[in-house]
Automatic annotation (TrEMBL):
Keywords: ATP-binding, Kinase, Membrane, Nucleotide-binding, Phosphoprotein, Transferase, Transmembrane, Transmembrane helix, Two-component regulatory system. It comes from Arenimonas fontis. This is histidine kinase. GO terms for molecular function: phosphorelay sensor kinase activity. It comes from the Bacteria. It is found in: Membrane. It catalyses: ATP + protein L-histidine = ADP + protein N-phospho-L-histidine. Its EC number is 2.7.13.3. Residues 253-461 form the Histidine kinase domain.
Length: 461
């Protein structure tokens, strides 16, 4: 059982198709064999019926009801003993057999009514030497009017060996050709399976090249059924490579960021600063290093996400975030309105969704005068892809001039230096959007007149 589970796809399909082929050819052969046997027996019946009618037409019955056979019978074998063709007549007080039946013990047949006929066989007979054989017999019931409406049953027997020999020759030819056809079909089937499974073999070879570092991703064109698989594998490869690169960058950024505080502490130690001064400097630099570490760890956590995470309902998460922001900005009296499609789902990590909504909504609350509008719409799925989602946050604040959009999106840059903040919220949004291969558009809100941030995550596998 375990060996069957480890069979390759080609071996499984070849085994299944071979079983189906053998069953089909076997059933076809059996049906053709039975059809030929039935046809041979029907042909024999017709031939024996013709012989019986011809024999009776040339025969006579005298006044003493003695059967007189024709001098020249329809077939000369009726005259030769043991020829394999025999004739008998049965009637009340009458029993006649052809010369060919000499030394043969023919099986009796029941008396038939006038006009009635029967065909039986093969029936066993025994010759004068005790040898067994088989015959087919055709019998017909007649009434002889010239002898006073005397009823007779005329029977013609023929050796079954001739029919059996025809059947044997046919069977040898039939099963021989079927066996040859099976071999040819198996060969064709093997070639077809290898051709149809070649794309999978090609994908396997490309994966091996990726594993050995000879290629960066799956390349080339694939059949329609394998396109989602190839794209999913490429996404996985790129995601893992991106995760590794982000991890390296995070460690590099962390080391680089910590160099400055450490250098400051080293310089203070070398300058023989006073205890109180040194203590204050150490406290400040430790606080700074703690912030650096927290930020870098947070960014590293945001950079990792599952490609195939369970869909997350957006409306509930947005309500939780807005409830907190309304408390923080209670003195401004900002009202947040929702236009969220109940079918909208975010296919990713919960932390990424919270960071995305939190930064966009907090930015809107910070700059809004009275109103903030959150709109979430579903992007229809294409084929077997998952539906996408479009998140739009608008406010009625001063907005962002087109020439300042690129500058505002830079890390550490704030739209107004007088407003409290670190200038990294929108940069975090960009990182999340880029991680999910989405798009971020910044412009002016058509209804509220302030800033408009629109994030689109297209349908994906």
């Amino acid at each position: 059982m375990r060996a069957w589970r480890t069979l390759s796809l080609q071996a499984r399909q070849l085994a299944a198709a071979s079983v189906a082929l053998v069953a089909f050819l076997g059933g076809t052969g059996y049906a053709l064999d039975r059809a030929f046997v039935d046809t041979a027996q029907n042909a024999l019946r017709d031939r024996l019926a013709a012989l019986a009618e011809g024999y009776l037409a040339e025969s006579e019955l005298d006044r003493s009801r003695a059967f007189i056979s024709p001098e020249v019978p329809p077939d000369h074998r009726f005259l030769r003993p043991g020829s394999g063709l025999y004739a008998t007549v049965r009637g009340e007080g009458l029993r006649w057999e052809s010369a060919s039946a000499l030394g043969r013990s023919l099986p009796p047949v029941p008396f038939l009514a006038p006009g009635e006929s029967s065909f039986e066989g093969p029936l066993r007979i025994v010759d004068a030497y005790g040898m067994e054989n088989s015959v087919y017999v055709y019998s017909i019931g007649v009434i002889w009017e010239l002898a006073g409406d005397y009823p007779l049953t005329f029977s013609v027997y023929e050796d079954a060996a001739q029919v059996q020999e025809q059947v044997n020759v046919y069977r040898r030819a039939l099963w021989g050709y079927l066996a040859l056809a099976a071999l040819v079909l198996l060969l064709v089937q093997t070639l077809v399976l290898r051709w149809s499974l070649w794309p999978l073999v090609h994908v396997e070879r490309e994966l091996d090249r990726v594993r050995k570092g000879l290629s960066q991703r799956l390349s080339g064109r694939h059949p329609r059924e394998l396109e989602p698989l190839a794209e999913a594998i490429n996404n996985l490869i790129e995601s893992e490579r991106s995760h590794l690169e982000r991890s390296r960058n995070t460690l590099s950024d962390l080391a680089h960021s910590l160099k400055t505080p450490l250098a400051v502490l080293r310089s203070r130690l070398d300058a023989d600063a006073g205890c109180a001064e040194l203590r204050a400097e150490v406290q400040a630099q430790v606080q700074r290093m703690n912030e650096i570490v927290s930020y870098q760890l947070s960014r590293a956590a945001r950079s990792g996400h599952s490609l195939y995470a369970a869909p997350i309902e957006i409306a509930q998460r947005a309500e939780e975030i807005v409830a907190g922001l309304e408390k923080v900005y209670a003195d401004k009296g900002v009202l947040c309105e929702f236009e969220i499609d109940p079918e909208a789902r975010f296919h990713g990590e919960l932390g990424d969704l919270q960071e995305l909504l939190g930064n966009l909504l907090e930015n809107a609350f910070k700059w809004a005068c009275r109103r903030v509008l959150l709109t979430v719409a579903v992007l229809p799925a294409v084929g077997s892809r998952r539906p996408g989602v479009r998140i739009t946050v608008e406010d009625d604040g001063p907005g962002i001039a087109p020439e300042n959009v690129e500058r505002v999106l830079q890390r550490g840059v704030r739209g107004d230096e007088r407003v409290q903040g670190h200038g990294i919220g929108l940069s975090i949004v960009q990182d999340i959007v880029a991680a999910y291969r989405g798009e971020l558009e910044v412009g002016r809100a058509p209804e509220l007149g302030g800033a408009r941030f629109q994030v689109s995550f297209p349908p994906a596998y």
